[in-house]
Amino acid sequence: MTTTEAVPQSHAKPNFPDPYSIPTPPGAEGWQEMYPYYNLFLESRRDRDAQRTWFRNGMHFPEPMPPFDMVTSDSAFMSTGVMNTRVFALPPALGIDVRVLNGYVYMSANSVEDPAEVERRAEEFAVRVGYYYQNWSELYAKWERKMSDHIAALRAVEIPEMGEYEPRERVLAGRGVASANDLLVAYQAMLASLDAAWNLHSELLNMGYAAYLNFLTLCRGHFPEITDQTVATMVSGVDVLLFRPDDELKKLAARGIELGLAAELTSGAPAEEVRARLAGSEAGRQWLADYAESAEPWFHFSYGNGFYHHHRSWSDDPAFPMTMIGEYVGRLQAGEDLSRPIERLSAERDETVARYRELIEDPGEQEAFDEALGLSRLVFPYVENHNFYVEHWYMTTFWNKMRELGALFVRYGFFEQPDDLFFLRRSEVADAVADLQMAWCGGGEPLGPDHWPPIVAQRRRIHEALRRFSPPPALGPAPSGIVEPMTIMLWGITDEQVDKWLAAQQDGHDGATLAGFAGAPGVAEGPARVVLTPDELDTLQEGEILVAPITSPSWTPVFARIKAAVSDIGGIMCHAAIVSREYGLPAVVGTGTATATIRTGQRVRVDGDTGTVTLLED
To answer: Which residue stretches belong to region Disordered (predicted)?
Structure first.
C-alpha cells in the first residue's frame, strides 16, 4: 500500500460529492453499525472532514467491506502510516486517514506543510533510509526469514477444544491456567500477528518505491519527453515471486505429460474428481506428491487480493489451478512455448538503457544514472515479492485460522457457519469470546446463540445491498493538482483522471474512446470479457480482451489466454501493467470507467502505446 495526496481546493473545478450528503442505498439502512466509529464520517467532524479530498481505495478494497474484514484496512493503513511517520520519518508525508462510506473505503493523506519541519525530518530520514539502502540485500534476506517465521507462528496458534473437561494431562501437570484463557490469548495473538505482519509489509515497501521514483525523476530531468513506460522498461525483466505460482503450474503440466497423465489432466472433470482418479495409479500418486510440493507455499495465492475473507486461495479451492494445468498440458502437446519472453524483454531493456545513457554526456551524470538504475533494479523485486508473502501466503493463513475460531463458535451455536464470524466487528468478536469464556467456565449457557444469528443475517442482507451501490471515485473538494509521483504511478490518479471523474459525474460517458495509462506496449483487437470478481475468471475465453476493475497477481495464468488487458484502476506500476509487460501483451490501465462502459462480447482495440481503448462497435 502507499499514500495519496490531497492538495488545496481549486475554485476552477467543481467538487466531488460531499460525503455527508450521499444517501444510504435502499436496503442498507443501518450500515454504519457494521463499522467502528473511527472509520465513519462522524457528524461532529463535518466541518473538518467535508473540507478534505477523499479518494476511494478501489485498488485494495474494490468491494464493500464485511465488518471483521476492516482489520485488514486498519492494519494496512497503520503500517503505512507508522513507517512514514515514526520509523523512517519520510519528510513530506505522514500517514492516511480512513473513512468508510456505504461500505467502501476512502482515504485522505496527512502531509507535512512546514518547510522547516520537512527539513528536520529529512535529516532523520537520510540516516535511516541510507542504512537500509546500503544494507538492502542483507536486510531483505532477514525480512524473508521474519515473514516465514511469522507465518509459521500464526499457524501454530492453537484454538482450544473447549470440551466438557479441561484436558486431564494439563490438570495433572499442574498447569493452573484453563482453556478459556487460551481462547482469549489465541484471539489476541491473531490480531497482534496481523498488525505485525502488516508492519513487516511496509518495512521496505516505500523505500522500494522511493528508489524507483528517484530514477524516474532523474530520467525526466535528462529527458523531459520520456514516457513512464520507457522508464519502466529499463527495470523490467527482473524475476519476481508473483510469477512463481504460474511457473509451478507449467512445471506440473510438463510433469503430467512425462508421467502419461495428459488424458486425466485435460478431461475437464471437476478438480476433486480428477484428483481422485489420479490417486488410483502409481503415476498419479507421484504427480499428486509433486502437486503438494508446489502447493506449499506457492498455491497460498488468493483469487482476489488477500484483503477479503471470501477471496479464497488456490490452496483452498484448487479448481482454477487444476483447470490451468489442463490447459497448459494441451498447449505443451501442441508444441507451444509457455515461457515468458524474458530474453526478448532483457534485450529491449538493455538496448533502451544504452540508448538513453549515451545521450548523457557528462561522466558524473552518467555515473548517477547508473547508480539510480542499479538501486531500482536491486529493490524492485521486493516491491512485488512482499505481495506474495503478506497479501497471499500470510493472509490465506490468517483467514483460515480465523475460520477455526468461527468453527468453535458454530459448535456452541453462536453461528450457522464459520464465515458468519466475519460479520462481527473485531470488538464484537472479543465480546463473543468473553461470552463463551463465561459460559464454559461456569457451566451455563452462552447468550451468543440468541444474540448473534439475527444480527449476522441482517448484516449479510445489508452487505448485499451495499454491493449494488456505485461509489464515487472521490469525495469532497476537487484537488487543484496531483503532484505526488507514487499516486500517479501506482494508483493512476492524475489531474487528467480527476478531470475525467468530474466530467463523468456531470455528463456521463458516451464516447467511443477511453483514455488511461499506457501500461504495456502494443496494439490488439478482440472481443471484450468484463470480469468483475475472481469467480468469473473461468469465463475468459482464448483471444479475448480482459476488462476488469483491477487484476490480482493470482490471475497471471489467464494472461496466457488473453490478447490484452484493460483496468479501471492503476498506474504504470500496477500489477496488470507489470504482468502485461512481462508477457508481451498490450495493456491500458487506469481508465476509470472501462467496466461500466464496455460490455462482454463487444469488440475493442487496446492501444498500449497511446493508452487508449477504442470501442469498435456499438
So the answer is: 1-23
Q: What are phi and psi of 161, to 5 degrees?
A: -70, -35
Contacts of 492 (CB under 8 A, 6+ apart): 516, 517, 569, 570, 571, 574, 589, 590
Contact criterion met (CB below 8 Å) for 612 and 513? yes
Question: Which amino acid, residue 8?
Answer: P
For residue 489, what pLDDT is reported? 61
Q: Which residue has the cell 529527458?
A: 223
Measured distance CA(72)–CA(203) in Å, rounded: 17
What's the confidence (pLDDT) of residue 13?
62
Strands (E) in 513-570, as ranges, are: 513-515, 517-520, 523-530, 545-548, 564-567
User: What would the pLDDT profile of 201-239 be if each residue is shown by its tens digit?
Assistant: 999 888 888 888 889 889 999 999 888 788 888 887 667
For the sheet with 545-548, list strands across it.
513-515, 612-615, 603-607, 523-530, 545-548, 564-567, 587-589, 517-520
Domains of the chain: 509-615 (3.50.30.10)
In this predicted model, what pLDDT tens digit does every residue of 179-204 receive, in sequence order? 999 999 999 999 999 999 999 999 98
| pLDDT greater than 50 at residue 281 | yes
Calculate ∠ Cα 239-243-278, nearest 5°.
140
Q: Determine whether 283 is exposed, middle or buried from the number of CB atoms within 10 Å of its CB (0-12, 13-18, 19+).
A: middle
Q: Where are the alpha helices (DSSP H) in 83-174?
A: 115-134, 136-156, 168-172
The pTM of this model reads 0.91
Q: Where are the beta strands (DSSP E) in 394-548?
A: 474-475, 513-515, 517-520, 523-530, 545-548
> In terms of Cα–Cα distance, which of 398, 290, 508, 384 is closest to 69?
398
H/E element, 433: helix 426-442
Q: How far apart are CA 204 and CA 83, in angstroms?
A: 9
What amino acid is encoded at 261 in this protein? L
10 Å Cβ neighbour count for 191? Answer: 17
- Under 8 Å CB-to-CB from 196, ≥6 apart: which residues? 150
